[in-house]
Prior knowledge:
Thiol Ester Dehydrase, Chain A, five-stranded antiparallel β-sheet, alpha+beta, globular, single chain
Amino acid sequence: MLDLTENWLPTQAEFDAFAAVSGDDNAIHVDEDFAARTGFGRTVSHGMLIYAKFWGMMQRHTPGLRQVNQAMMFPNPCYAGEEVVLRVTGDVPGTLTLRAFRRADDAELLLAETEVA
């Protein structure tokens, strides 16, 4: 049984670096002036950056882990400068449940299940 929890404080520099690596330079992630005029009010993390944080965490604790399948939802935005709690529970091999939430208000940022081998 895997039961991992880590804290993460996202930064705009991470959003920018992920945009550069992934090619997803949508203004909502990298342009603070543009994002300020949206319903979010500021830049938001790429959903896959949050998942990449999870994947790194899982690999550090279970090297060689392979993903077979995944399903994800991003119910709320993830902002720079707001602490995020990353939690993974489940069986390896088997199904892992991933939950990222803002520490300040418990808003869920990522809910996922991933099948791993």
